Amino acid sequence: MNARLSTIILYVKNVQLLKDFYEKNFNLKVIEEDPVWALLDAGGLYIGLHTIGDQYLEKLEADYTFDNNTKLVFEIDIDIESARNELISKNVTMRDIKTFENYPFWLCDGTDPEGNVFQLKSKK
């Protein structure tokens, strides 16, 4: 069997909030949407945003943020410091810029409004 990753689905509290976040901050194009679902074109694969089932949603407090082990990595076409500063100016929580020895990229993690971690990746 050959396989190709086509879509990553995040289960979220507020599809509209996260759709707007990724559309406005990363220029992702919305392919499909309805009240409980949005599909975004992330250039080579899709990001699906699906509302968490009611049986789970009812148990979450209003200010709950997710703690998961998934990170969305976006390779960007501008310098990473400018991108980081732009997101900070929009009140997006961003960490420090980092890199590793013999690694050709700068990296910077941030979090979306529901606590999902994303990373900016820019060539040195």
TrEMBL record:
Domain VOC: 4-123
Superkingdom of this protein's organism: Bacteria
InterPro entries: Glyas_Bleomycin-R_OHBP_Dase (IPR029068), VOC_core (IPR037523)
Entry's transmembrane regions: none
Name this polypeptide is given: VOC domain-containing protein
Organism: Chryseobacterium culicis
Taxonomic lineage: Bacteria, Pseudomonadati, Bacteroidota, Flavobacteriia, Flavobacteriales
